[in-house]
Amino acid sequence: MNNFSEDENWYVCSLVVQAKPAKLEQVKAAILAIPTAEIHGVKPEEGKIVVTLESDRQLALADRIDKVKEIDGVIVVSLISNYIDEQ
């Protein structure tokens, strides 16, 4: 989902979300409700979810990470990588 103009940066990060296994489906649904969030992998027995988030603004990306952290059933969110596409 790259919709940026020539003079803007595009920010992408990947996360591992550790959730309570009993709330995994609720957590996944809440993550997917966040703009640009995509789920790339799930280990249901461990409650782990691999997620990417994207934005054309760094602060918006930070806000989206905070939204993931606030989801009921999330134990911890780990930032795995952060990428900036500089235009």
The CATH class: Alpha Beta
The percentage helix is 10-25%
Strand-residue fraction?
35-45%
Quote the distance from N terminus to C terminus.
15 Å
Any low-confidence stretches, pLDDT <50, length ≥5? none
Task: Say which CATH homologous superfamily is assigned.
Answer: Lrp/AsnC effector binding domain/regulation of amino acid metabolism (RAM) domain
CATH topology: Alpha-Beta Plaits
Total of helices? 2
How many structural domains in the coordinates?
1
Architecture, according to CATH?
2-Layer Sandwich
The count of β-strands is 4
Q: Tell me about the biggest sheet?
A: 4 strands, antiparallel
Tell the overall outline: elongated
Mean pLDDT: 92
Give the C-alpha Rg: 13 Å
Structural class of the helix and strand makeup? alpha+beta
The strand order across the widest sheet is 2-3-1-4
Following the backbone from N to C, one meets helices and strands in this order, namely EHEEHE
